[in-house]
Write a structure and sequence with these properties.
Aspartate Aminotransferase, domain 2; 502 residues; eight-stranded mixed sheet; Arc Repressor Mutant, subunit A; alpha/beta; three-stranded antiparallel sheet; 3 domains
Length: 502
């Protein structure tokens, strides 16, 4: 051994001895010995007891120093290497890696918090704000997601464990192009119960959520300059997708019974659209439902003017029952049905589906393969397990009741604050309310108090100024949010409350 190597190892031994002396394994603890050792070494590295470039003891020496088996050290080293904390150098051993500093407030754009009031309130801003890490629970302008406390995490985790025990080697392969066959069979059976003639192989395609399903449909049908009819108001993400595809996006006013049929026919005659995209059982953002008479008229217009209807049922499970389904009336000839499970089960389960005529299903399967190959089968297996295990139906009923109660609370409180409602929502996660002033101005006033509000202008394809706001009913259980909203409204009125008092 050279004198230089002896000197180097003597320098390195001191911190390693301090690291070893500061830890001893705890047998029969809640955490495994591997987890204990990983945490200890990572902490020593973070505190710079073990500095970047330090060579760690060999697996045998570390096992002796720490009083654990070699297998424990091997797995601990592997986990630390996977985390980028240490690195293996062939023939030399394991060395501590330098750690990147935590981003500061002036760090890169992607790690910086989204400003509450940017220069322009557009659709991307709203989406970044909805899903940003700084958005607090119960924000009025939040995404239409169930609060975690309203969901059944145990039900989902039981399905995760069951799939983990039974999936075997199938998780090591791509899934089927049309999606996990048992899930498609389950979807087809559920659609048949709604009188929609769906066959698992001929009509069903799984997707990575409803947004993905809509993306595939837009890719297939729309070329730059084509006209697509949408509801006004409607879900703003659809507008963004269509604008990105170069479509001419034309809004059709939404009434209490469905789209304004006179405007729909006039726009169809003028523009010869490729698609009409519509929410049927639970409209986003108004919470209204389509009537049978309106639905039949839509299908007659689709036949007369040769366009396809895309029926988005994202929030359909929140309807109390007896909903009108265009796909059932039409038999999947001119209607494409899209739906998903993320909203009710877990937002991280990005599993959706579309149901269409056989030829269109084949074409959309090709679009799916070209744009992203197959969808992850693991999530589809988990959703299938939840659907077939039994408690899901009762869970949906409980959630629907809780959403209904929260919506009633929101309606009453908004009326107390001076908002007006053009019509009372019948189902779903949202309340569409008139604030009596420019909605974007109110949203900017809310941003000054760190309150995220969703201005109605973003829910119209024209993006014109609007007095409407979309409120998410999960705010019902957050008194602090209501107090802040009351302050914002009073400030906007010059300090005058709804009853006229200062």
């Amino acid at each position: 051994m050279t004198l230089a190597r002896i000197a180097t190892e003597s320098i390195l031994d001191a911190p390693l001895e301090r690291a070893a002396s500061a830890w001893s394994p705890v047998r029969d603890a809640d955490r495994t010995l591997v987890e204990q050792l990983v945490d200890h070494l990572a902490r020593q590295i973070d505190e710079q007891v073990l500095r970047a470039g330090t060579r760690l003891p060999s697996i045998r020496d570390m096992a002796q120093q720490m009083g654990v088996s070699r297998f424990t050290v091997v797995e601990a080293y592997d986990r630390l290497a996977a985390q980028g904390v240490i690195a293996s150098r062939r023939g030399a051993g394991f060395f501590v890696q330098s750690r990147a500093p935590a981003p500061s407030d002036g760090g890169p754009y992607l790690t910086a918090p989204e400003p509450m009031a940017p220069q322009r309130m557009d659709i991307p801003w709203l989406l970044r704000s909805m899903f940003g890490s700084t958005v607090q629970p119960g924000m009025p302008g939040g995404a239409g997601l169930l609060p975690a406390a309203w969901m059944d995490g145990d039900m989902v985790m039981a399905a995760v464990r069951a799939v983990g025990r039974t999936a075997g080697a199938s998780v090591l392969h791509y899934g089927a192009p049309q999606g996990y066959a048992p899930l498609r069979q389950q979807i087809a059976a559920a659609l048949c119960q709604e009188d929609i003639p769906a066959h698992a192989d001929r009509n069903i395609l799984t997707t990575a959520g409803v947004t993905h399903a809509l993306t595939l449909i837009v890719r297939h049908f729309v070329r730059p300059g084509d006209t697509v009819l949408v509801e006004d108001p409607g879900w703003c993400v659809v507008y963004g997708q269509l604008q990105a595809a170069g479509a001419n996006v034309v809004g059709v006013p939404r009434r209490a019974d469905g789209p304004d049929l006179e405007v729909l026919e006039a726009m169809a005659a003028r523009h010869h659209p490729k698609l009409f995209i519509i929410n049927t059982p639970v409209h986003n953002p108004t919470g209204l439902a389509l009537t049978a008479g309106n639905g039949h008229a839509i299908l007659r217009l689709a036949e007369r003017y040769d366009f396809t209807v895309v029926e988005d049922e994202t929030y359909g499970e929140l309807h109390p029952g007896g909903a009108v389904h265009l796909a059932a009336m039409d038999g999947l000839r001119r209607v494409v049905r899209v739906g998903g499970y993320s909203k009710m089960m877990a937002p991280s389960l990005r599993v959706g589906y579309l149901a269409a005529a056989p030829e269109l299903t084949r074409a959309l399967t090709d679009e799916k393969l070209l744009s992203g190959l197959t969808t992850p089968e693991m999530g589809e297996r988990i959703v299938h397990r939840v659907l077939v295990d039994g408690p899901y139906r009762r869970y949906v009923e409980r959630v629907r009741a809780r959403v209904n109660a929260a919506r009633d609370t929101c309606v009453a409180r908004l009326l107390e604050l001076g908002f007006t409602l053009p019509f009372e929502p019948r189902a779903g996660m949202f309340v569409w309310a008139d604030c009596g002033m420019d909605g974007e101005a109110l949203a900017r006033a809310g941003s000054a108090r760190q309150l995220l509000l969703a201005p109605g202008s973003l829910y119209s394809p024209s993006q014109a100024p609007s007095p409407y706001m979309r409120f998410t009913v999960s705010m019902a259980e957050h008194p602090a949010v209501w107090r802040t909203l009351a302050q914002v409204m009073a400030d906007a009125r010059g300090g005058v409350s709804p009853n006229g008092r200062k």
